[in-house]
Amino acid sequence: MNLDKCFIITLNTSIVMPPRDFHEFLVNIKAGMYLPQTYLMREEMMVTERLDSTSELGYYINNLCKDKDTYRLQRRDTIL
Question: Nearest Cα to 74, choosing from 50, 54, 44?
């Protein structure tokens, strides 16, 4: 199913730890730590805003979401 929409969430660092620096990032890539891993997470999310541009979100997200309606999602329990 292709909806031509992108939904962006903030990285949940309690599940996915970001690298401390660029060197650690490269070491982790070489070690295969960023290979796809599947986990089932259930969280209630709400659309909070429409983004006019994705260029500030980095190359990968900008490439995937270019020319698509893009929205920011936020965890429901942090809004209410």
Answer: 44
> By the 8 A CB rule, do 69 and 4 touch?
yes
Decide: helix, strand or coil at residue 61.
Answer: helix
What does residue 62 show for φ and ψ, rounded to 5 degrees? -60, -40
- Tens-level pLDDT at each residue, the chain (80 residues): 577 899 999 877 777 677 788 888 888 888 887 766 666 678 889 999 999 999 999 888 999 998 999 999 998 888 86
Phi, psi of 72 (to 5 degrees): -95, 135
Domain boundaries along the sequence of the chain: 1-11+56-80
Q: Which residues contact 9 (CB under 8 A, 6 or more apart)?
A: 45, 72, 73, 74, 75
Give the helix ranges, DSSP H, for 1-80.
Answer: 22-30, 59-65, 76-79
pTM, rounded to two decimals: 0.65
